[in-house]
Amino acid sequence: MSQEYIEIRGARENNLKDVSLRIPKRKITIFTGVSGSGKSSIVFDTIAAESQRLLNENFSMFVRNFLPRFPQPDADAIENLSMAVIVDQKRLGGGAHSTVGTITDIAPILRLLFSRVGQPYVGQPHMFSFNDPQGMCPECNGIGRSRCVDMSKALDMSRSLHEGAIMLPDFAVNSFDWTMIVQSGSYDLDKKLSDFSDEELEQLLYAKARKVETQFGGKTVNITVEGCIEKFTNKYIKRDVKTMSERTQKRVEPFITDGPCLLCRGARLSQAALSCKINGNNIAELSSMEVGRLIEVIKEIKDPIAAPMVKALTERLQRLVDIGLEYLSLDRETDTLSGGESQRVKMVKHLSGSLVDVVYIFDEPSVGLHPRDVHRLNELLQKLRDKGNTVIVVEHDPDVIEVADHIVDVGPFAGSRGGTIVYEGSFSGLLQSDTLTGKHMKHSMPIKDHFRPAKGKLSIVDANLHNLNNVSVDIPTGVLTVVTGVAGSGKSTLINEVFLQKHPDAIVIDQSAVGTSTRSNPATYTGIMDDVRKAFASANKVSPGLFSFNSKGACENCQGLGVVYTDVAFLDNVKTTCEVCGGKRFKEEVLAYKLGGKSIADVLEMTVEQALSFFDLKEVVRKLQAMSDVGLDYLKLGQPLSTLSGGECQRIKLASELHKKGSIYVMDEPTTGLHMSDITHLLAIMNRLVDAGNTVIVIEHNLDVIRNADWIIDMGPEGGSNGGNVIFEGTPKQLLSAKHSLTSKYLSR
Ligand code: ADP
Ligand code: ADP
Ligand code: ZN
Ligand code: ZN
């Protein structure tokens, strides 16, 4: 029966301590454990990495040379692994040509439908594709937008030409282009533009190039004049940006904006395609409908020829509805989707596929989902399993953990204090175990009973971006505000777009990478390294520069990297520890200098906790303490930042901002990647920030965070066009009795 399990023995990636485990095939296995315990090291760095490597082995040596290189994961054995598909939160790129419709393969069916039953008949399916030369709008090449002059910046209507009414570059008073306009003799130079007649303005802005006879220094000459917008457009917008110098680009870019294409008005298709309709709608109109409404419109198509396509479309659209994405439209560009939305769109794509016996790996699929919608996610995971696939999920949400057939709890703590499996078995068994996960599954936090009063307010007035319905709302200062609501209700639009546009000085703490260079680490990022270098220098009476692995103190063999990459033709790039410095990154003479008996390399090997008991320099201790306060005391000072998880990145950012006062902090789902026990830490930090006089605004679904808010702004009632309203403002206690709020319902459950 060994075929029934994926078997891993002696895994040692990152912090893993010779981990062995069996994952049942064709079941849902959920990995739990605190942030940094080693879940990703097992799931991604061991299982997914091995699957990728096996896949690449199928290719010839020659082909493999062009593929990314996947070294063998550090483990004694990995057996019975089939092909793995990773469904993660990486944003779906793809630019303007990738939309929800194209990525889910729904768009081709819709095109087929129009080519069969659309009236009048215009041709085959590709005529309806904006990615096809025959279907695309010839003006914008299927992009739907074109670059045009930002009219709000081009003119100052309260000025005359003499006063410099044309704000565009090249048209300053007395410039060459300005002189041409003046010399044309067509305008009253002292009249304010607001007093120009429509014809005069049209001429000034849009006139095509024409020859005019004029007097210059007593001579009659022929000059060419054209409207200023026309001229700017020809000179800078219709030209390939890459052919302009960087300086020119910088100068003209502020005057250029993206507007809908003038020919197709954003519909992206040729006029012929747009003329073809079904029940009064063309394909662009259907593509811009919210999926929840589109499915109704499609069901109304009764033509028997259309039946198979209607069936296929309804099935696929229903999957988007089922996973809680009914508020998206097919024409939504995928690079505007959030991480959670991207992951759910990818799930829909995989459900339509016919692959079986695949290992699907999900990274916290509940991200961005309101408690109300989590059961939909669970149903999707179960469907994937029931099709005969193995489903592996890293997840923290108790409501998802519940559907696991098998649970692997990693811990007991993070970093070097984690890396072992503390529980394996059923959900009910987990509840009985005394691991951190087991203990936290059983109780939730109470709503706090004292709410801080607001010190002031920041107002948003009449916001209408995306689905916002003329939203006016006050955000209290000096308190912890949590913005809630189902996915698509408008939380990010309100905070990340409208609010941040007005308050760009706010400190945004997200989970994006803090540094991609292999040379940055927690010590350099937090500034500890500078102080430590100085301390080493003064203790040894040498220059501080010696103690940087980016400069003259660096090992010459590996340039301070500690490792050497060897490119062996036709074989995987081999990474080996530098044999000169043994991975210590510094020259031997530098390592001879000591501080309190330790070399600089010894210090970089210390964890935050060890460094705290070693150093007594005031600034170093403060920075180390901040890292310890955010729960990173297990992190080594020299660990490359590129290896930190999203949650760790977020916390190191928080650590380096903790000492500020009077600032506005904005966080979007900061509990992502955090275990229930980590959330206690996070809440403590948020409270500390508020107590120090800061304003903290958090978008969250996590009920423990909601219960700890001073003030709640609940958006809704639903997503998309049924959302976009503030449906509740008040304390969590008041929210309990807000009958119309979905969040309220789950808070009191
Ligand atoms: P989890 O997924 O449970 O949050 P990870 O598996 O990402 O935890 O990380 C486990 C530990 O290994 C953490 O302390 C993390 O900082 C460390 N780690 C992860 N990747 C690397 C790496 N490439 N090099 C060194 N340490 C790493
Ligand atoms: P939430 O943060 O509550 O999940 P969002 O603010 O992301 O909600 O979305 C609110 C509405 O605005 C949804 O209908 C969403 O599809 C739409 N929307 C969000 N971003 C964009 C965008 N870049 N382009 C078009 N529509 C968008
Ligand atoms: Zn167009
Ligand atoms: Zn070296």
From TrEMBL:
Source organism? Brevibacillus ruminantium
The chain positions of domain ABC transporter read 1-443, 445-748
Q: Where in the cell is it found?
A: Cytoplasm
List the keywords (alphabetical): ATP-binding, Cytoplasm, DNA damage, DNA excision, DNA repair, DNA-binding, Excision nuclease, Nucleotide-binding, Repeat
Q: Which domain of life is it from?
A: Bacteria
InterPro entries, per the entry = AAA+_ATPase, ABC_transporter-like_ATP-bd, ABC_transporter-like_CS, P-loop_NTPase
The family classification in the record reads:
Belongs to the ABC transporter superfamily. UvrA family.
Q: State one Pfam family annotation.
A: ABC_tran
**Protein name stated in the entry:** UvrABC system protein A
